[in-house]
């Protein structure tokens, strides 16, 4: 699934593909925003950990779980 995070006062965004489900990501972000948590912890499909400060999150876009691959299909 594709995840895109917009950061406040930054022209760039964080974009990565995760093996977590949309529901898991939504739960993690909602819990962090409702409680006094300082960071959101998300893991991409290669195992890289992303720590995003909750105070800096402008938006989070959670894409579809199936992505289209570029290239020929055999």
TrEMBL record:
<dbReference type="InterPro" id="IPR021456">
    <property type="entry name" value="DUF3107"/>
</dbReference>
<dbReference type="Pfam" id="PF11305">
    <property type="entry name" value="DUF3107"/>
</dbReference>
<protein>
    <recommendedName>
        <fullName>DUF3107 domain-containing protein</fullName>
    </recommendedName>
</protein>
């Amino acid at each position: 699934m594709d995840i895109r995070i917009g950061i406040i006062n930054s022209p760039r965004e964080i974009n990565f593909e995760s093996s977590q489900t949309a529901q898991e990501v939504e739960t993690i972000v909602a819990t962090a925003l409702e409680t006094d948590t300082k960071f959101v912890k998300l893991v991409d499909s290669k195992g890289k950990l992303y720590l995003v400060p909750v105070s800096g999150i402008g938006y989070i876009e959670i894409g579809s779980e199936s992505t289209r691959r570029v290239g020929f299909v055999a």
